[in-house]
Design a protein that fits this description.
The chain has about 150 residues and is mainly beta. About 0% of the residues lie in helices and about 50% in strands. The protein has no helices and twelve strands.
């Protein structure tokens, strides 16, 4: 023995690390362009063969009829899941609609050992009224798990 121990290799599928992000800041938009929700989280994979399991949980709402919320998941500035939320609820009798929390589970292959940031964005796809993230005392959470490849 040389006095050092080689790093143990975990079997494929093992969870190597877990990080999380949180925000409760309310974000409103009337725009049809995507806006950051304020939810983001960064992870630095230990191997280029690792996968990253992303779990996101967010609350959304809208204040007008004929309003549609779309949400994307981004890695850096690139969209990795387009319209993971595509809420097309159109009510004729409610002007303030709080939706059940939206959830996303996605397995990514970042192929890097550099810090990688994931975030969510949303927009008002119908262009009427206002959409909101973290409305009515809601909050948003993201968990990133590095999985051995």
């Amino acid at each position: 023995l040389s006095g050092t121990v080689a790093a143990a290799r975990m079997p494929a599928g093992s969870v190597l690390q877990v990080v999380s992000g949180y925000t409760s800041t309310e974000v409103n938009t009337t725009s049809a362009s995507y806006t950051d929700t304020g939810l983001s989280c960064a992870i630095t994979p230990s191997s280029t063969s690792s996968k990253v399991l992303i779990i996101a949980h967010q609350s959304f709402g809208k204040n007008a009829t004929n309003t549609q919320i779309d949400a994307n998941l981004l890695k850096g500035s690139s969209v990795v899941v387009n319209q993971w939320l595509n809420d097309d609820v159109r009510t004729a009798d409610e002007t303030a609609l709080y939706l059940p929390p939206a959830a996303l589970v996605y397995l990514d292959s970042p192929s890097t050992t550099s810090a990688t940031t994931y975030k969510t964005q949303f927009r008002n796809a119908a262009g009427a009224g206002q959409v909101v993230c973290n409305n009515n005392n809601g909050d948003s959470r993201m968990i990133l798990m590095e999985i051995a490849g």
